[in-house]
Specification:
alpha/beta, Rossmann fold, 8-stranded mixed sheet, two-stranded antiparallel sheet, 6 helices, elongated
């Protein structure tokens, strides 16, 4: 069963490659495009040079845009929630820089984002600070000090070695407990993880949780809201009905949790 995701991804990528190949621009068509461009070009600007040819023969078979349903929707959803809190400084553990972090910085409403990750960050940008740390302990941060903290689609990886972290079956739990410990009284935690009908480990890619596992682990926090992503749609659920809605989940959905200490 743990190879299902691998084979599904392999099959989907194979289908995409076949579609792209069938709809590609052939070499003959490429030469015709060059000839037509030269006939239509009436200026000496942007003249085709054989030394600068850069054939892109497969791109016309691609859609206008491609997104990952979990990441695309969660980043927008959580950005809105964080901005509604009107916090000026926000901490994040392991979320996508090109997703949530970019949205927060572009909003102009967050003065400082501090990104926490076990891997180095090779970029710098005004308003973005970085601290290389292990999320299973966050030793460099004082307890009860953070007013706003997020971790989107990251906790499920901790302790699996995928990103150079030590193998630790309890890595996910330690990370959640450390985030809980670092939050200040009244502080917010914005969290997303894969959720499904059954709890499972797909080594070494990720874990899939049942929602109540997350809620029970963060036992010092109050759950303010819960939503989940299923088939490119966000469903907001009464937080008191989490235990009853697990039968509606797919095998790999995305749970969106907002907690307060």
């Amino acid at each position: 069963m743990y190879f299902n995701d691998f084979y599904n991804n392999f099959y989907n990528n194979l289908v995409l490659k076949v579609v792209r190949y069938k709809n590609r621009i052939s070499k003959g068509q490429f030469r015709k495009q060059i000839k037509k461009y030269n006939v239509l070009n009436m200026t000496d600007e942007f003249v085709i040079s054989k030394r600068e040819l850069y054939p892109r023969l497969y791109d016309r078979a691609l859609p206008a845009g491609k997104v990952d349903g979990h990441y695309f929707l969660q980043d927008i959803y959580m950005t809105k929630k964080i901005l509604q809190s009107e916090v000026e400084t926000h901490y994040d553990v392991g979320s996508r820089v090109e997703g949530l972090i970019t949205h927060l910085l572009a909003s102009g409403m967050i003065k400082q984002v501090i990104l926490l990750d076990i891997r180095p960050l090779p970029i710098s940008f005004p308003g973005l600070d970085f601290l290389q740390t292990d999320a299973t302990n966050l030793n460099e941060i004082d307890d009860n000090s953070l007013q706003s903290l997020s971790s989107l689609h990251a906790v499920e990886h901790f302790g699996l070695g995928r990103y150079g972290d030590p193998i630790d079956p309890e890595g996910w739990r330690k990370a959640l407990k450390s985030m809980q410990r670092k939050l200040a009284k009244g502080g917010y935690l914005y969290l997303s993880v894969p959720i499904g009908k059954e709890q499972k480990l797909c080594f070494n890619a990720h874990r899939v949780f049942v929602p109540k596992t997350i809620v029970e682990t963060l036992n010092e926090l109050d759950l303010l809201s819960f939503a989940y992503i299923h088939e490119m749609k966000i469903f907001e659920i009464d937080k008191n009905l989490i235990g009853e809605m697990e039968s509606r989940l797919g095998d790999f959905d995305c749970g969106l949790f907002i907690f307060r200490k």
